[in-house]
């Protein structure tokens, strides 16, 4: 075990996979000498050279698409999007090409490719650099979607993503990069996709949360415990595939569900999870499920406005109480 | 100079494509095919000539008007026709149809329903070839319409910057669906755009096998020498509408008839005979053999089973 930041867990996992498999390479904006805007490829060019740690022009549709073609041709590209917000200019290559190639071609092609980058609030970057667009990638069949919330998960999920023969949207969070945690040193450490982690056990209310909202939910659970309310906090870790079984089993025990995320509440992941749970476990539920998500506005610049748009720990506390009719 | 063996290969492929397309049209009109079918009739010289210099391990990306590229890159007519009919025996097991035929075993990275969608993919395949120290080249076929998409410009820039072994082949058939070039494209010759990306650009008569071949050999040599990409614009014309059923209000019958006079197959046939490269008998044999092969492919497709609806969720993901 080593203590390292979430960003270094990502960097070290990329390095170990590049050592293991010469077909793995990175490309993206500012990833060479600059080491990526958040340090996730820091110094990798020194070990692997500038061919395999390849700076690209600001040309997302071009280099994401080149990743698709390289993957078709036997490479295992890791393509960095500096911000997931920038995926929108490469959406055709992600959603129409990478995601659909295998199915359209009758199962005779594969696209072993990781598209990674960060999303979310934390830097005061406003509307075009702070979004959480994960649901777009959840919505289109053919992509897998990972969302690590701690350094250990970042390492274990990224290794799984790099070795997966499907395109993976690997979504990091900018406010998590500098948070340290224990990470196994084992170069084979992998976390299977579709296995949620119960981050806190509880008996009264189930909270499903991703990214920053795992910690915000744990904080909410601490507060609620003082009022005698026991919360179970589940981090799905990958939203495609999604470990519905762990959520359903928890809801069967608690009878109550809150889903909390930073992304838009409207048509967000929470809407999908609640739909699934009511289809499969309605008879176990003692109250309507609640979704905690961003207000329906672009992420504002001013900190006070940003805080007003994005849910807080207290919003999670209130949603939990609502399921208890309090 | 194209040797006799390759000349006959090209003539054979042009005839396979022409007959395949005519059969597809017939089946569509008999309601035996559905969907959007974009015919390549009139443009056969481009795909057949270029693919005559490619090996199975070389890559292509194709377009919505992709049957010709697929056949020229080695697609079996049976499986291609079965895919057009959505059958279980088709290249994509009925999941792709006319616009999505691919055969990675033959280096065909796929037709593409998105205009400009294939250019970055071919660029990436060329990047893989270069990174792995292989001598494989990539050819991206696309139309005049795609040259106005961002992916065209981004791909040319990347390929030139990284000196990739790729040849960009623009089939300029004069129209993006109904919009003529003068309403859509800022340059007279799309090959002019090559200069903006520091690579050679050539415009050739796309209905002339020899002209296409000469330009392509130069580009191929350059790609294999590690000197980088080339943009070749082949001026040609599609005889049929954008899709089967297109009312074609944007052009006159006279214009279409004039282009039919410039039929690439007729023209190459005359060339082969005049220059004593092939005999009437040899060419006649190719014509009847390809027609019979296409008829057999249609029979195969019609007699093939439909895909099992229970398998609709298969192959969304690679499992393994």
Task: Give your account of this protein's structure.
Chain B: InterPro entries: DH_E1 (IPR001017), PDH_E1_Alpha_Subunit (IPR050642), THDP-binding (IPR029061). The complex is a heterodimer of chains A (326) and B (320). Chain A is of the alpha/beta class. Chain A folds into 2 domains: 2-183, Rossmann fold (3-Layer(aba) Sandwich); 197-323, Rossmann fold, CATH 3.40.50. Helices cover 38% and strands 21% of the residues of chain A. Chain A is built from 12 helices and 14 strands. In chain A, the strands form 3 sheets. Chain A has a 7-stranded mixed β-sheet with strand order 3-2-4-5-7-6-12, sandwiched between helices. In chain A, strands 9-11-10-13-14 form a 5-stranded mixed β-sheet, with helices on both faces. In chain A, helix 8 links the parallel strand 10 (205-209) and strand 11 (231-235). In chain A, helix 1 (6-20) runs parallel beside helix 7 (151-163), helix 3 packs parallel to helix 4 (91-98) and helix 8 crosses helix 12. In chain B, strand 4 (175-176) and strand 5 (179-180) form a beta hairpin. Chain B is an alpha/beta fold. Chain B has a single domain, classed as 3-Layer(aba) Sandwich (Rossmann fold), CATH 3.40.50. Chain B has helices at residues 4-29, 44-51, 67-72, 77-84, 118-131, 150-161, 181-184, 209-224, 253-260, 264-274, 280-303, and strands at 59-61, 138-143, 166-172, 175-176, 179-180, 201-205, 230-235. Chain B is globular. In chain B, the strands form 2 sheets. In chain B, strands 1-2-3-7-6 form a 5-stranded parallel β-sheet, sandwiched between helices. A two-stranded antiparallel sheet of chain B has the order 4-5. In chain B, helix 1 packs across helix 2, helix 1 packs across helix 11 (280-303) and helix 5 runs parallel beside helix 6. The chains are: A alpha/beta (326), B alpha/beta (320). The A-B interface holds A 23, 25, 51-52, 56-57, 59, 61-75, 77, 92-93, 96-97, 101-110, 141-142, 144, 164-166 and B 59, 61, 90-96, 100, 102-104, 109-110, 112-114, 117, 119-129, 131-132, 136, 138, 150-151, 154-155, 157-158, 161, 314-318, 320.
